[in-house]
Design brief:
- Helices cover about 40% and strands about 15% of the residues.
- By secondary structure, it is of the alpha/beta class.
- Strands 1, 2, 3, 4, 5 and 8 form a 6-stranded parallel β-sheet that branches. The protein has a 3-stranded parallel β-sheet with strand order 9-10-11.
- Strand 6 and strand 7 form a beta hairpin.
């Protein structure tokens, strides 16, 4: 399967009534049908600039996505691990980027958003939250954060370490009973310890837990030329350090201005081909294209309950 682990395309509902065809975006449903089998769609809300109450705004955007998907052919929301077995449709996994929208009644909202299809969550974005410190502000998991991790483990919600602090990632790896993902990151050893990168020690710890690190395409994170060649260096470094079973791609599509060689999922075939040309083995390429993520999700997602 071909998987991308992070996009912010849901935020395009501010401009469009449907995500079917977005000529100036990196992703739309039309291109997903051709170039991806599974795409992680994140709802990101900036707590300092969101004009509405965060829980209500998350609820609104989730509803718009569900309504839009109900009108689409060949695309469905990923809810159950059974959907990963010989899928007949392209799949969207809904995630929450930063747990601020859970709000004061976070346990009730977590249950509601899960019932409506949310299957992944990051404890923080760039700000410290009631659950965890962030990569920009530091700090580890709080007691509420540890309880949130336990509940997500019980429910079958994938935990995302993107944007978390170094201390928070250590806490998350220690606290979670299940493997986690870092949905859009880069290797600190390749980009000189950019704040959103992950260092070798934590890459190894994440892999030892059974998790996946998805390499992103954001120019500021990649360092150097920020082009296809530089992106390949991050992917190859991660594969060399922790093995392809723990590496994937997380473009951060529609969340940043990407290099023209990477700006859109229509370029993914060229990414795969360039990695092959640079010497990546076919088995490793299949893993980073998406098999690593599918293996992870088969462990995390809930089983569909009988009627």
């Amino acid at each position: 399967m071909r998987v991308d682990c992070h996009c912010d395309t849901i935020m395009k509902y501010a401009e469009y009534s449907s995500l079917e065809s977005l000529p100036h975006a990196h992703i739309d449903f039309r291109r997903i049908r051709e170039h991806l089998d599974l795409s992680f769609f994140a709802i990101w809300l900036d707590q300092e600039n969101c004009p509405a109450e965060l829980s209500s705004e998350f609820r609104r955007l989730q509803g718009l996505l569900l309504e839009d998907l109900s009108r689409q052919q060949g695309i469905d929301l990923l809810l159950w691990r059974e959907q990963l077995e010989a899928p007949e449709k392209k799949l969207i996994l809904l995630s929450m980027e930063g747990a601020e929208p859970l709000g004061e009644d976070w346990q009730g909202n977590l249950q509601e958003f899960y019932q409506k299809g949310m299957r992944a969550i990051g404890l923080t974005w760039n700000y410290v939250t009631r659950f965890s410190g962030s990569n920009m502000q530091g700090g580890g998991l709080t007691e509420e954060g540890r309880e949130l991790v336990r509940r997500c483990n019980d429910m079958g919600i994938l935990l995302d370490a993107a944007h978390i602090s170094e201390e928070g990632l250590d806490d998350l790896l220690a606290c979670s009973r299940h493997p986690i993902i870092d949905s859009h990151t880069v290797c600190a050893s390749v980009c000189n310890d950019w704040p959103r990168s992950i260092n070798d020690r934590q890459l190894i710890a994440l892999a030892e837990k059974g998790g996946v690190a998805a390499m992103t395409m954001v120019p500021e994170f990649l360092g150097g030329s920020a082009d296809l060649e530089q992106f390949c260096r991050h992917v190859e470094y991660a594969v060399g350090l922790i093995g392809s079973r723990h590496v994937a791609l997380g473009g951060d599509y529609d969340g940043a201005d990407l290099h023209p060689e990477l700006a859109g999922i229509q370029h993914l075939p060229m990414v795969y081909e360039r990695l092959r040309q640079r010497g990546m083995a076919a088995a490793d390429l299949q893993q980073i294209m998406g098999e690593s993520v599918v293996t992870l999700l088969r462990q995390i997602l809930p089983e569909q309950q009988g009627e």
